[in-house]
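Query structure, 203 tokens:
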């Protein structure tokens, strides 16, 4: 280590820092709990069987997570989705969980089949839903993140949202790499098979 501290002393310092992170997480939960939910429109997507509305994605549940995914062309979004897939059964025991991307449903289906994804997916044509939720950049390109919704007396409310990026709370890969000297050390997620095939087809 650059400051030359022993392993034991460094471990104690890290424990103190992680305790501060726990305190910050507690404060985040308190602030989140005090935020007034925002009512949102019943947006329309394209599902595997045709048009489907945001209200349908609740599938009879009160709570819903919608992942703002950039699609097969984004290696990191595919990496994050692989992680969600691993815990999907647990997520689905508490709330509905759906991944939305701008990809057409046929591309979503091929990608899901290739990677063994179990969660439902919907197409967000032109990233219209992502834009309404604030998940497009200034050039109109989709950005990654997660929004949480609740149904209340037939109305849809967004109760929370957060963007996705390396070292966020939603992908364990980066946190494990941080334990190694040099961290990720230039590592990057590999493009999905679907993205590679699409690029090859374009020549």
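Result returned for the query:
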């Amino acid at each position: 280590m650059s400051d030359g501290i022993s392993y034991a002393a460094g471990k104690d310092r890290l424990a103190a820092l992680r305790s501060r992170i726990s305190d910050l997480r507690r404060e985040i939960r308190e602030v989140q709990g005090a935020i007034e939910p925002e009512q949102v429109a019943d947006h329309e997507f394209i599902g595997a069987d045709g048009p489907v509305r945001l209200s349908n994605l609740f599938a009879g549940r009160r709570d819903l997570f919608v992942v703002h995914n950039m699609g097969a062309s984004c290696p990191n979004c595919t990496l994050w989705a692989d992680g969600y897939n691993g815990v999907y059964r647990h997520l689905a025991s508490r709330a509905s969980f759906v991944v939305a991307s701008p990809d057409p449903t046929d591309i979503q289906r091929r990608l899901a089949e290739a990677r063994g994804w179990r969660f439902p997916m919907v197409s967000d044509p032109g990233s219209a839903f992502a834009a309404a939720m604030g998940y497009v950049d200034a050039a109109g390109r989709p950005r990654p993140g997660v929004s949480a919704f609740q149904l209340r007396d037939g109305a849809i409310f967004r109760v929370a949202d957060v963007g996705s990026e390396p070292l966020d709370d939603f992908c364990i890969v980066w946190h494990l790499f941080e334990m190694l000297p040099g961290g990720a050390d230039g590592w990057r997620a590999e493009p999905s098979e679907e993205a590679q095939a699409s690029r090859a087809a374009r020549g």
